[in-house]
Amino acid sequence: MKTLNTFYIRTYGCQMNELDSEIISTQLQMRELKKVDDEETADIIILNTCSIRDLSEKKVLGKLFEYKKDKKDKIIGVCGCMAMSQKETLLKKFPHLDFLLGTNNLLDINKILDNILSKKLQEKRVDLNYEIGLENFFAKRENKIKSSISIVRGCNNFCSYCIVPQTRGKEVSRDSMSIVKEAKYLANEGLKEITLLGQNVNSYGLDKPNSKILFPDLLYMLDKIDGIERIRFMTSHPKDITKDLMLAIRDLKKVCEFVHFPMQSGSNKILKAMRRTYTIEYYLEKVNLLKSIVPNVTIGTDIIVGFPDETDEDFDQTYKLFDKIKFDTAFIFAYSPRKNTLASRYDDNISNTLKQQRLQKLLKLFHKILEDKYRKLIGTKKEILVERFNKDKKILKGRSREFEKIIFEGDEKLIGSLQMIDLESFSHQTLIGRLTNNKNF
Ligand code: 5AD
Ligand code: SF4
Questions:
Q1: pLDDT at 437
Q2: Residues in the chain with pLDDT < 50?
């Protein structure tokens, strides 16, 4: 095998995967490998994968079939959730695949490469337990304005449809001091915004009975770090969202007024079958409490349509609640049965056509809600963190504290700064504005 000089890494799925890819890339760069943007010139190809829905897995399988025809002398590896969910079969099914690296073995990447180079055998590291040492490894970030920090890995919830507890293992909260240290490291690198990541950030600290630091406490610690201007977090499970957290959002200057806490369905019957452990009444109570404590808060949700036995009435309840709550961001998915989950034992009895019809109907409602909201925002101002140019390098893009996407014309030197924008119009899901002249906001 030739010497290794370059690698290509492609990330599928969520922000946690994006972060894991940076952890892998940093280690490869530490052994003097250069990251390249195309598969052709790479000596190593890494697919960091997602298993959340069938479509996510199909995209990767398609790639693996492609490489089968034309592997050349490249090393090819699968990391992330598919390395976990298909650990028994992938290496057999794809003999040209060189390694599987699971979500709890990120620090093993270089050992794996060394073994492949010396033994020329397929390698597999797919532990289900939290990886020791990971909390003290800080990835180099490509984005110099904003990035994420993992604060809880794994998930203990076992929602009946979800494969994540199988692919990422049990919930483990990271030591608070190492989180603070990583946030300071990012501030020192010049980053302005951090997003705290976990499948359920609200349960931070609950797995450590001796720790007194829960999620709101962590926010208070991070809010003090000089240089960081904004703090976001996701995802919040409604069952664990507390009044203390709401007060922290209200009182802490840097914590943004946006909460992503997925409702999943508006029908109690479906929520029960999903094992979400809350009712719609409870969910609404939390939404109302949050809005009363943080009046300008925006709320994001995930919704699954077409769960087994979802009747027209069940969907109608989801639709009506969606309209009542008027979510500010929404990811809407068609139910996709996942192997070895509880729901995979139920009959997947909603046709794809009906799932798509329901999805489109909800999407249409969501777009109408956004339009109504954006229309009302015209003529007002919002503070944004300027993140980057768009592709043609003419328009700058940023987000408000409440997570609205805003574009405006401006100079490159504004990137990384907070700016006030007068909102003038909108197109699709983007607000359009111009820099406010008055700098004394
Ligand atoms: N089918 C469809 N959507 C799913 N999600 C999780 N599992 C499935 C599945 N089997 C959605 C949930 C979750 C989001 C990350 O993905 O809405 O909140
Ligand atoms: Fe999956 Fe539920 Fe855990 Fe979210 S909370 S990762 S939906 S099991």
A1: 76
A2: 440-441
Q: Which residue ranges form the domains of the chain, and what is each CATH number?
A: 6-125 (3.40.50.12160), 141-256 (3.30.750.210), 266-374 (3.30.750.200), 378-435 (2.40.50.140)
- Is the four-CA dihedral 331, 333, 339, 341 of positive or negative sign? positive
- The distance in angstroms from the start CA to the end CA of the chain is 61
Q: 302, 340, 344: which to mutate for ligand 1, most atoms within 8 A of CB?
A: 302
10 Å Cβ neighbour count for 115? 17
* Block residue for tokens 């899901």: 429
> Tokens representing 71?
């592997």
pLDDT of residue 1: 58
Question: How far, in Å, from the CA of 390 to the mean position of ligand 1?
Answer: 30
61 CB-near residues (< 8 Å, 6+ apart): none
Ligand 2: centre distance to CA 207 (Å):
16
Atom number in ligand 1 closest to CA 52: 7
Structure tokens at 15: 């922000």
* Three-state secondary-structure class, residue 298: strand
**The predicted structure's pLDDT at residue 428:** 87
- Residue position matching structure tokens 């359009």: 432
Q: In what order do the strands lie in the sheet with 34-35?
A: 34-35, 6-11, 44-49, 75-80, 99-101, 123-125
pLDDT reported for residue 72: 84
Q: State the Cα–Cα distance between residues 220 and 222, nearest whole angstrom.
A: 6
The atom number, within ligand 1, closest to the CA of 14 reads: 15
User: Coil, strand or helix: which one is 257?
Assistant: coil
Residues in the chain: 441
pLDDT (tens digit per residue) in 400-416: 999 999 999 999 999 99
Percent of the chain with pLDDT over 70: 99
pLDDT of 343 reads: 98
pLDDT on residue 441 = 47
139 and 122 Cβ atoms separated by less than 8 Å? no
A 10 A CB-CB count for 93 gives: 13
